[in-house]
Design brief:
Helix content: 10-25%
CATH superfamily: paralog of FGE (formylglycine-generating enzyme)
Strand order of the largest sheet: 13-12-10-14
CATH class: Alpha Beta
Largest sheet: 4 strands, mixed
Radius of gyration: 18 Å
Order of helices and strands: EEEEHHEHEEHHEEEEEEEE
Number of domains: 1
CATH topology: paralog of FGE (formylglycine-generating enzyme)
Shape: globular
Number of strands: 15
Length: 291
């Protein structure tokens, strides 16, 4: 086991009662963001940053672990990042989302497939990791994935029912606070926020809990199975989601999110994916019992 220090800096959070969920008119139908509900959480700790390539590499060196993408031999890469070498081994695009290409050889070590690598990306979030991959590192580090309720509490940074971790304006004072798609998706990204793909994990200002990149950059796996029927309670005590399911919760949005395409970088927004899925915009951060 790597020990808790292997998880990176953990920020202690008091927990208590907060309002989870949202009622935004522009929520994605069927995502189950609402109703807004009172939730009580026990104290816990959340990693200040998403797990980086450097930290994941340390885990792999210590354990010899091979990720889901490495075992299956392929993963999903955004079409705009597929270079000539990767294009030659691409299995094709997803019919319903043609900006995603299944590329042989794409994995955490080669985020864009053959011809790519991790040069200058040690402090970027690791991607192409499945839910099982995330749990494996967490177990080695002696910690765990956050529940969905813990993730949202942490992302809100002490603000109640605001759209983003910093407030209700996406770019307060004209300044960018997260890494999302700027321009027309998927044709042109202006990179007005400073990044086309992933950004280093310490980019932009932290929220009120001193946590970085709780919106945009990469989707983050949560421990919960995904469900849209939220149990009753006043308040709900440490909710854990359904006892079983087919997909796990993802939170936070990614560098590919755009208002007209996927505005799930709002704090209340939710997404889901099957646990063994991997893609170039999916990572994770860790949580633990209160220190």
């Amino acid at each position: 086991m790597g020990g808790v220090g292997a998880a990176g800096r953990m920020v202690p959070l008091e927990g208590g009662v907060f309002l989870q969920g949202g009622a935004d008119a522009d929520a994605v139908p069927g995502d189950g963001e609402g109703p807004v509900r009172a939730v009580r959480l026990a104290p816990f700790a959340m990693a200040q940053h998403a797990v980086t390539n450097e930290r994941f590499a340390r885990f792999v060196r210590a354990t010899g672990y091979r990720t889901q993408a490495e075992r299956s031999g392929w993963s999903f890469v955004f079409s705009g990042f597929v270079g000539p070498a990767a294009a030659r081994v691409a299995r094709g695009a997803v019919a319903a989302a043609p900006w995603w290409w299944a590329v042989e050889g794409a994995c955490w070590r080669r985020p864009e497939g053959p011809g790519s690598g991790l040069d200058h990306r040690a402090h970027h979030p690791v991607v192409h990791v499945s839910h099982d991959d995330a749990r494996a590192l967490a177990a080695w580090a002696g910690v765990r994935l956050p529940t969905e309720a813990e993730w949202e509490y942490a992302a809100r940074g002490g603000l109640e029912q605001r759209r983003y971790p910093w407030g209700d304006e996406l770019t307060p004072g004209g300044g960018h606070r997260c890494n999302i798609w700027q321009g027309s998706f998927p044709q042109h990204n202006t990179a007005a926020d400073g990044h086309v793909g992933t950004a280093p994990v310490g980019t932009y200002r932290p929220n009120g809990h001193a946590l970085f990149n709780m919106a945009g950059n990469v989707w983050e796996w949560c421990a919960d199975w995904f469900g849209t029927d939220h149990p009753a309670g006043d308040p709900l005590m440490d909710p854990r989601g359904p006892q079983a399911g087919t997909a796990r919760v993802l939170r936070g949005g990614s560098y590919l999110c755009h208002y007209g395409h996927c505005n799930r970088y709002r704090v209340a927004a939710r997404h889901a994916a099957v646990p063994d899925s991997t893609a170039g915009n999916v990572g994770f951060r860790l949580a633990a019992a209160h220190p």
